[in-house]
Amino acid sequence: MGEVSWPSESELNFIKTKVADMSGRDAREVRVVVSPYRICPLGAHIDHQGGTVSAMTINKGILLGFVPSNDSQVVIQSGQFKGEVRFCVDEMQLPKNAIKLNNSGQQNGPGPGPGEECNWGNYARGALYALQKSGNHVKWGIIGFIYGAEGLDSSGLSSSAAVGVAYLLAFESSNNLTVDPEENIEYDRLIENEYLGLKNGILDQSAILLSSYGCLTCMNCKTKEHKLVRAPEMNSRCKIGMNKKLKILLAFSGLKQALTTNPGYNRRVAECQEAARILLQASGNQGVEPRLSNVESEVYEQHKCKLDPILAKRAEHYFSENNRVLNGFDSWASGNLEEFGKLISASGLSSIQNYECGSGPLIQLYEILAKAPGVYGARFSGAGFRGCCIAFVDANRALEAASFVEKEYTILQPKLASQINEGKVVLICDAGDCARVI
Ligand code: GLA
User: Fold this and answer.
1) What burial class does residue 24 get, using C-beta atoms within 10 Å of its C-beta: 0-12 exposed, 13-18 middle, 19+ buried?
2) Rounded to the nearest 10 degrees, what angle do helices 360-370 and 337-353 cross at?
3) pLDDT, mean over the chain
4) Does the pTM of the predicted model rise above 0.70?
5) First-to-last CA distance in the chain?
6) ω before 263 within 30° of 0 (cis)?
7) How far is the CA of 203 from the centre of ligand 1 (A)?
8) Which atom of ligand 1 is nearest to the CA of 47?
9) Which region among 26-40, 86-100, 203-217, 363-377 has the lowest average model confidence (pLDDT)?
């Protein structure tokens, strides 16, 4: 399991005591799902097109303490959001857009409970939906308390997938269901694509479910084949283990918005599909599913002149990013962090210029990070419409880089900077491990 420093004993005790108070059970009976946040150094926005992505987790994330209920009741409280989520596992869950008002104006199917801030219980209901839809018999509910690390929700670290995975693992554990990571990748896809209606790919949950400390996770989102690429412990370039040499910086913009409420993500997905449709048609393959992974790169080179300027940029991002990912695995495997970092920053630039998904403050953060001392490379994290940037930095210079970024960003965006986690613009993290129940 490697040298993972999260969660700490005190965090685990805090969660266990909470659940013991809620359920009246002994704290020793409480199980805890550890579901880490993920980063994607290379491979942004190509998962939904079937591209190959790189990912790893960090040593921060979601903790879900729970005990199986003695019946079908689900009762969950949150450390971040108000209200208590209550439903029964024998209620049939329907996708959000399938919930209609009946003749008396009430919702068909269960909706949010009273006082449930931001419908935060939807991920628990979505997890049940995914399990039910896939034919699993869920008989026992859970009594649980969910807690996200240091207010990092909606920051582009994929807190939503970490939450979805956490509920899946808790329901599975309570119902003695044996489910492998590949199946859970599909179940989380059902939560996001079907239950919540976000047209995203499988990068987030694959990273959370498959990652292993010290490795870069490689996921081919078309074939679903994956492998772990281990960093060399020692070679001529890095005299100490790569994971000791490297720190991960999370630099927060102060902008937060859930992806499901931002139309930009699904619009970009549609633009990529449209580009694929035109390229496939131009090459006589109109019957093929319009995804850019179904377009050969030679076909792209030959017919890209047929794309309008916006679609041409989206396609350019896809094809150039796929190449960066493949080159990145070589750099990682040989311990060449300088080269790996350059690819990360080039990927960040393509997100700005070709995928056009940044916002002003995020672009400023990216530029500051790219010139910070000891930084190998930087890019937006997650969808890049809000949230944070990530950077790989020389462990010996991480503190210096963090204070540089904090100072420069506060000069450019004093108001946003003052709204961030008590003014802490930058968090220094380590790599993490996969999601698990302890
Ligand atoms: C979000 C989505 C992912 C992926 C990234 C961008 O996190 O959920 O599927 O597309 O954005 O790489």
Assistant:
1) exposed
2) 160
3) 89
4) yes
5) 13
6) no
7) 6
8) 10
9) 86-100
Which atom, in ligand 1's list, is nearest to the CA of 53?
12
Ligand 1 geometric centre to CA of 24 (Å):
39
Which secondary-structure segment (H or E) carries 266?
helix 263-282
Q: Which residue has the tokens 């380590």?
A: 430
Residue having the nearest C-alpha atom to atom 7 of ligand 1: 382
Task: Give me the mean pLDDT over the 398-406 stretch.
Answer: 97
- pLDDT tens, position by position, 407-424: 999 999 999 898 887 768
User: 255-281: buried (b, 16+ CB within 10 Å) or exposed (e) per residue?
Assistant: bbebbbeeebbbebbebbbbbbbbbbe
Section 1-13 average pLDDT: 79
Amino acid in the structure at residue 388: C
Q: What fold does the segment set 9-103+115-227 form as a domain? A: Ribosomal Protein S5; domain 2 (3.30.230)
User: Cα(422)–Cα(405) distance, rounded to whole angstroms?
Assistant: 16
Q: How many CB atoms lie within 10 A of CB 382?
A: 30
Per mean pLDDT, which range of 222-226, 251-255, 285-289, 393-397 is the poorest? Answer: 251-255
What is the per-residue pLDDT for 419?
84
Q: Which atom of ligand 1 is nearest to the CA of 192?
A: 8
Question: Is residue 180 annotated as part of the catalytic site, yes or no?
Answer: no
pLDDT at position 254 is 87
CB 226 within 8 A of CB 208: no
**Residue pointed to by tokens 């509910």:** 141
Task: Say if residues 147 and 80 touch (Cβ distance below 8 Å).
Answer: yes
Residue 367: exposure state from Cβ atoms within 10 A (0-12, 13-18, ≥19): middle
Residue 92, token pair as written in the block? 């049939």
- Which amino acids bring their CB within 6 angstroms of ligand 1? 40, 44-45, 47-48, 158, 200-201, 203-204, 382-383
Question: Alpha-carbon distance 10 to 12, whole Å?
Answer: 5
Cα–Cα distances in angstroms (integers) from residue 374 to residues 240, 360, 367, 429, in the given order = 16, 24, 14, 15
- Give domain limits for the chain: 9-103+115-227, 264-335
Best substitution site from 152, 153, 191, 203 to test ligand 1's pocket, by max atoms within 8 Å of Cβ? 203
Tens digit of each residue's pLDDT (9 = 90 or more) over 126-151: 999 999 999 999 999 999 999 987 66
Instruction: Tell me how far the alpha carbon of residue 234 lies from the centroid of ligand 1, in angstroms.
Output: 32
Q: Is 429 helix (H, G, I), strand (E, B) or coil?
A: strand
Q: Exactly one of 47, 188, 204, 430 is catalytic; name it.
A: 204
